[in-house]
Amino acid sequence: MPELKASQLLTGAARTAAQSVAKSTTKHVTVGATAVGLALAAVVVATAGPWDSSGQRKAEAVRAASQESGGGADHGRRTPGAPSAAPSAPAVLAAPGSSVPGPTKRALADVLDPLLRNPDLGTRRAAAVVDAVTGERLYGKSAGDALTPASTTKIATAVAALSAVGPDHRIATRTALEKDSAELVLIGGGDPTLTAREKNPYGAADLRTLADETAASLKRGGTTEVTLSYDTSLYSGPATHPIGPNENLAQVSALMVDEARTDGSGSGPAPRAADPAAAAAATFAGLLHDRGIKTKGTPGPSKASGQAEDVAKVESPQLSALVERMLTHSDNDIAEALARQVAVASDESHDFDGAGKAVEKQLEKLGLPLSGAHFADGSGLDRADKVSAALLTELLTKAADTTRPELRSVLTGLPVAGFTGTLSSRYEDEADASGTGLVRAKTGTLTGVNTLAGTVVDADGRLLVFAFMTEGAAVPSSAQAGLDRLASSVANCGCR
């Protein structure tokens, strides 16, 4: 079929499919619904420009909506029985251009003002809607006020990390041998996705592969017994998050395996190892033993000397993939690790304080509005974090800028309403279901705090970015429904 313009697809079959999904009373994903998610994904990717030649996909649209609810944009998994991507959807669609009319400020205000007055949203609220093509703010209420962003902080972390180290950067976990003492050092580089599972979940760096290569190299040199230690010196300062121990986050360490989860879960709150690095080293010792390399005693902390010879290494997926996974799943461990990577690249201290300063420094370089902003962590778990709706929309607008291709995974990582990640089980109510497949947004939730920031393509085919922030809501589910309704209204608003 001939290539369609994004506005044609979204205002035609895809938008019709969205309405069909909204009226459906089942959770079954239909082929029509898949086309909706694909259409929106394609618009976002096409607006940001094609993927570069480093092996990244040409359009995240091809499989976005067919992935499993927790699988993110394209992390190699899909729900059993879920449909394949709609074959009629082109891999890359023409982006909405300036010739497509955007909503007027007055018409948009007429739609959003009554919804923003909803008492379910709490005692404080802020909002901003921006035209992604022109950068013009089309709607704003207390947009410059700095509120607690919760997990929408991760948008700032993502932009800072991609700016500081680049989308192609990979994080290495290495082994090195001290020749004089036969001490083998497992060196953590800060990869939060390192895994030891027999079934690698999404192409993460594999501790088993590192053990394979390390054991083979040692045997070639005639070594079959070592003293194993581990090096976490890349990070400094307290490992415990400022809010204290929390099931939503492991101790922040330069070395951990499977996010230090002790129950085998792959996501969500879970018990964590008290010392992630020690647990990782113990696992590695067992893997070496299985491969014919004996280790003396219990692995302990150390630091590789300048004379240590590299033995083997494994590398994380590209940073762009880590960003996508972080945003889709709202993964706190990845968020804190990426904030530390910003600190490392920015010559700030490699602790919570230094990471916050480094993130702010990177955003300042981009000319973003930082009045009242504060970054106490990379994940948004800390209530001391403060950002404005204006900053969130500017971050997303920057990511949609075709001159900033390094930031495109900020958009492709956003969950799709009703399909992926933290939005997979939302947009079910009749009042807000019209946003299913059309809204892509990062959620944020703490007690009394609810936020939503992302992108929509409106009924006229114009790409818009939005941020809605609330504090003081008594019932979280009611506040979330109110935010979903706001985003759905933007998506379905011609607003001329």
Please characterize this protein's 3D structure.
It comes from Streptomyces citrinus. It is an enzyme of class 3 (hydrolase). Its EC number is 3.4.16.4. Keywords: Carboxypeptidase, Hydrolase, Protease. The chain is of the alpha+beta class. Among the domains are: 105-166 and 366-491, DD-peptidase/beta-lactamase superfamily (Beta-lactamase); 172-317, D-tyrosyl-trna(Tyr) Deacylase, Chain: A (3-Layer(bba) Sandwich), CATH 3.50.80. The chain contains 13 helices and 13 strands. The chain has helices spanning 6-11, 13-23, 31-48, 105-116, 153-165, 207-220, 276-290, 319-329, 332-346, 352-365, 389-400, 409-412, 476-491; strands spanning 124-131, 137-141, 146-147, 172-178, 183-187, 225-231, 294-295, 300-301, 309-315, 387-388, 439-446, 449-457, 463-471. The strands form three sheets. Strands 4, 5, 6, 7, 8 and 9 form a six-stranded mixed β-sheet that branches. It has a five-stranded antiparallel β-sheet with strand order 2-1-13-12-11, with helices on both faces. The longest helix is centred in the N-terminal third of the chain and has 18 residues, at 31-48.
List the defining traits of the structure above.
single chain; 496 residues; alpha+beta; Beta-lactamase; D-tyrosyl-trna(Tyr) Deacylase, Chain: A; 6-stranded mixed beta sheet; 13 helices; 13 strands; 32% helix; 15% strand; disordered N terminus; D-alanyl-D-alanine carboxypeptidase/D-alanyl-D-alanine-endopeptidase
